[in-house]
Specification:
Helix content: 25-40%
Shape: globular
Pathway: Cofactor biosynthesis; thiamine diphosphate biosynthesis
Number of strands: 19
Bound molecules: glycine
GO cellular component, one term: cytoplasm
InterPro entries: FAD-dep_OxRdtase, FAD/NAD-bd_sf, Gly_oxidase_ThiO
Strand content: 15-25%
CATH superfamily of the largest domain: FAD/NAD(P)-binding domain
Keywords: Oxidoreductase, Thiamine biosynthesis
CATH topology of the largest domain: FAD/NAD(P)-binding domain
Protein name: glycine oxidase
Length: about 400
């Protein structure tokens, strides 16, 4: 764990301006910002806030980056990850995907860590007639959004990815759907924060709740801070429980996902895939070292993170039907994580208007990695008292509060 920071270094030009946080200054014992949650979202917000000149404390119940961020596959696939009716989520995802190249470059430049951002493109494979029709609908949405897409015959798809099963019915090529390595992103963010003199990271802090004074939020656990960012993923509702009596709801629930990591059984084997392959119920994500991520289940099982025989059976059945040669790979890891789901699958981002001092960066459901850059920008802007263009009603932190629902 890094040592306590000297305060005030790295103070940015916008520090202390606007309607938002006034940075407390060198002599104050309080951090300017407490961030609860050291997943990709919390770390990215902390990084941005520190770069804006804030003194930041990040608190994490377990090890940093060890929850959903450790399990995530890292697809940057806004269209495929939103349902057809989820237009606001789609727009947010497209916006964040556009921010990823600069975010990755900045992080790499700051730390020297390669975050695994690769412009691979994606094949969306149809293995039956229903999936082929779904692909027609997805192609129409992509065309409407101006996102490049090509419909491929099975033979064309197999020329691009020879490991695809001969039985596939066709595919879409989405050349703009890329990938990043979430574990490398966490490593880079941690390197950036640990090197920053005004950031403190406290891991293994246990289950913490927000400190409150009426509806105002004054910190987390024992830590008092000028502003508090709730970025606790699936644990966010419990952390915000003290605010329920003040009409503030953070309705985030755990949605379990099981994944397999596979790697070549013998040294020197060519990689199974060149690019991400998606299909109706899952995906295969190749990494440069030959590892392939096979995911993922979607389960409402509370906080259970056991890997089950049924989960593995479903994943391996998909593998057999989509890329049968993958069954020859060795199993490197089985893992389960908890997506932070909201009632509309869209995150809660920014300053909460009814809970002074509270900023939300949670509820990212399937899109935590995709949405990291826009989350960092929206929340850091809120901390400065500014507004990022992506902030708005679709991500409004108060939209599930009883007062908003009744209005
Ligand atoms: N974003 C992939 C998943 O949630 O499984």
């Amino acid at each position: 764990m890094p040592g306590r920071a000297a305060v005030g270094a790295g103070r940015g030009p916008r520090a202390g301006r606007g309607r938002g946080l006034r940075w407390t200054g060198v002599s104050s014992p309080l951090p300017d910002v407490a961030v609860l949650g050291a997943g990709v979202a919390g770390l990215a917000v902390a990084w941005r806030a520190a770069r804006d000149g804030a003194r930041v404390v990040v608190l994490e119940r377990g090890a940093a980056g060890a929850a959903a961020s450790h399990v995530a596959a890292g697809m940057l696939a806004p269209v495929a990850e939103a349902d057809a009716g989820e237009r606001a989520l789609l727009a947010l995802g497209l916006d964040s995907a556009r921010r990823w190249p600069a975010f990755a470059r900045e992080l790499q430049d700051a730390t020297g860590v390669d975050v695994g951002y690769r412009e691979t493109g994606t094949l969306v494979v149809a293995r039956d007639r229903d999936a082929a029709e779904a692909n027609v609908r997805e192609a129409a949405i992509r065309a409407e959004l101006g996102a490049p897409v090509a419909s491929l015959l099975p033979s064309q798809a197999r020329r691009m990815e020879p490991a695809l099963a001969p039985t596939i019915r066709g595919a879409l090529h989405a050349p703009d759907d890329h990938v990043v390595d979430p574990r490398a992103v966490v490593a880079a963010l941690l390197a950036a924060l640990r090197a920053h003199p005004a950031v403190e990271l406290r891991e293994h802090a246990g289950d913490l709740v927000l400190r409150t004074d009426g509806a105002a939020v004054t910190g987390v656990g024992e830590v008092r801070a000028g502003a508090t960012v709730l970025a606790a993923g699936a644990w966010s509702a419990a952390a915000a429980a003290p605010l329920r009596d003040h009409g503030v709801r953070v309705p985030v629930r755990p949605v379990k996902g099981q994944l397999l990591r596979l790697h070549p059984a013998r040294a020197g084997e060519p990689p199974l895939l060149q690019r991400v392959v998606r299909f109706d119920s899952g995906y295969l994500v190749p990494r440069e070292d030959g590892t392939v991520i096979l995911g993922a289940t979607m389960e409402e099982q509370g906080f259970d993170t056991q890997v089950t025989a049924l989960g593995l059976h479903e994943l391996l059945r998909d593998l057999h039907e989509v890329v049968p040669g993958g069954l020859e790979l060795a199993v490197a890891e089985t893992v389960a994580g908890l997506r932070p789901g909201t009632p509309d699958n869209t995150p809660l981002l920014g300053a909460h208007p009814h809970a002074p001092g509270l900023h939300l960066a949670t509820g990212h459901h399937r899109g935590g990695v995709l949405l990291a850059p826009v989350t960092a920008d929206v929340v850091a802007a809120g901390l400065r008292g500014a507004t990022d263009p992506a902030a708005g009603p679709a991500v409004a932190p108060e939209r599930f509060d009883p007062a908003s629902v009744a209005a």
